[in-house]
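We emphasize that the prediction below concerns an isolated chain of 245 residues; any contacts that depend on oligomerization or on bound cofactors are therefore not represented. The input was used exactly as deposited, without trimming of termini.
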Amino acid sequence: MREDNAGGGEASAPRRFYETAAATPAEGGFVVSLDGRRALTRGRAPLAFPTRAVVEAVAAEWAAQGETIDPRSMPMTRLLSTTIDLGPAEADIWRARTIEFLKADCLCYRAEEPAALVARQTDVWDPFLAWAAGALGVRLAVTSGVGFVAQPADAALAATAALRNASAGEALALRIIAETTGSAVLALARWRRAFDADAIYAAARLDEDFQIEQWGEDAEARARDQAMRADFDAAGRFIDLLKEA
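Result of the prediction step, given as a C-alpha cell string:
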C-alpha cells in the first residue's frame, strides 16, 4: 500500500483516509504513522523527528481530524514538514531574516506623546532590551518619533552568534515570531523562554492595545490579532517541543 503525503492541503479539504494516527519508533527517532503506514511530507520525506514529543504533537493533530482534513488546524504538521523539506537549504536564510528585524525592531521606536503611552512603552519594552543586552550582548539604540535610528553593527553580530546553534526548526519558528511581532528581540526572548509568552505577545501588541483602549476595537482588527496570536503560539509551542528531550 502506498505511503500517504502529509505535507500540505489542497484547495478543497480531503477526506480522512485513515483510522489511527500515532508516533511510532523509527530509525533515528519517531515517525507519524497513519494506520501503520509512514506519513510523508510534501517533499516525500518521512514525517519524522528524533524526539518523541514533536512527533506525538504532530500525530495528535492527525488524530483530531474529523471526516475531512483541515490543514489550518495542523500547525505542528506544517512546521515540522517545512523544517524537514526546506530546513537543510533555508535555515541560514531563516536566521538572517530574524536578525534583519533588529534594523527596525518595534521596541526601539517610541512615541513622543501622549505621556501615558510613552510611560507604558518604557515600562514594558525596556526590560526586554535590557535582557537582550545582558544575556545576548544585543544592545540596541532607541529613538522617539518617526525618524530611523541606525543600530550598532555589534548588535547584529551578537544576534548572529546567539543563533548560530539554533536548529533548523528553531530558526523557522524564530522567523515566524519575528514577523508576527515585528521584533527580533521578542523572538529571541521567546526562544530563550526569558519571559512569559503572554507578556511577550502583549509587548508586541502594546501600541495597538493602547489605541483600542482609547477608541475601541473593530471586528477586522480582532480577527487579524487572533490570526497573529495563533501563529505566535504555534511557533512558540514548536520551539518548546523541540527543546523537550
